[in-house]
Design goal:
Endonuclease I-creI, 4-stranded antiparallel β-sheet, alpha+beta, 12 helices
């Protein structure tokens, strides 16, 4: 009963106080051990000279013995309380990956490096939806990842790859209702810290703040990069069994450069199609077997449908 009353008091009072989890644990430890000791003392005093026999499950013992058992029960209860419902209900516990955003020192920023694998992936992502940016007045670069909510699994996959560079866990955002349909479109996103390890790629892919296709894209683009480019910005036409890459943000000359790399380096028979917003790249059905064989083992599993596989 005492424990129950104590839990209720803590549940009401503590949420309104700004108490760190560590301090809360210390307070709970002191209070509950005090209650356990007090309970043991009262039971022991009442049982002096009486040696009353009680039952505990299938085993019989004296009240003195049972009071000792009760003490250890309360110790176990304390351990459960500190690691279980009481503490978790009072302290907002952040997920392991929900790291608070904070400023890094120059020395800390310099310690981050990109593996060759992540660099190849970033090349493909930068051809797609990924954006890189320098904060106003800054010298380093941060990356911004964003996907519609229907691709949340893919976004979480990207976060898993780049979370060591990230200042926060993915967040959910809702756009204003569409003017024509009234629908509210949701997306998930996360940013990285501004780091010098992203600077070289930024200088390749951005000119005066605008994204471009690097002139040496034939050297930069690998099968792994292609897999993430298609995952990020590709679509599969089931009727024609063709893959379409959305390259409307690039000029015709840049799209021609990309098509040359796809055709010469990866042996794909790509064509350029014009639409209302610019130019897109089409990988036809006759090239699909080559593309599938090249990417099936390295493409993110949740995006494999974009090359006609399930």
């Amino acid at each position: 009963m005492v424990i129950s009353i104590l839990n209720k008091i803590l549940a009401i009072v503590l949420p309104s106080l700004r108490i760190s989890p560590l301090l809360l644990i210390r307070i709970a430890t002191i209070v509950l051990f005090y209650v356990a000791a007090l309970y043991l003392s009262v039971v022991y005093i009442q049982s002096i000279g009486s040696d009353i026999v009680i039952f505990s499950g299938l085993f019989q013992g004296t009240l003195k013995g049972q009071s000792i058992e009760t003490f250890f029960y309360l110790v176990n209860a304390l351990n459960f309380t500190l690691n279980g419902p009481l503490l978790s209900s009072l302290v907002p516990v952040k997920p392991d990956d929900d790291k608070p955003s904070r400023r890094l020192t120059k020395a800390e920023r310099s310690q981050f490096t990109l593996s060759e694998e992540l660099r190849q992936i970033l090349v493909g992502l930068l051809l797609g939806d990924l954006y890189a940016q320098k904060p106003k007045g800054g010298v380093n670069v941060y990356l911004g990842f964003k996907q519609s909510i229907v691709h949340k699994d893919y976004l979480l996959h990207l976060y898993d790859l780049f979370k060591i560079f990230s200042s926060q866990a993915p967040k959910l955002s809702n756009m204003a209702p569409h003017k024509l349909t009234g629908k509210v479109y949701s997306s998930m996103w996360f940013n990285t810290w501004s780091l010098p390890c992203f600077l070289s790629l930024y200088e390749l892919f951005y000119v005066a703040g605008s994204k471009v296709v690097p002139s040496n894209i034939d050297e930069l683009l690998t099968p792994l990069g292609l897999a993430y480019w298609i995952a990020d910005d590709g679509g599969f036409n089931k009727r024609d069994r063709a893959v379409v890459l959305s390259t409307q943000s690039f000029s015709k000359e840049e799209v021609n450069l990309l098509v040359g790399v796809l055709n010469n380096k990866f042996k794909l028979n790509c064509t350029i199609n014009k639409n209302t917003n610019g130019f897109v790249i089409r990988i036809p059905s006759k090239s699909l077997p080559i593309l599938q064989a090249l990417l099936k083992d390295i493409m993110p599993a949740m995006m494999i449908y974009k090359i006609g596989l399930e």
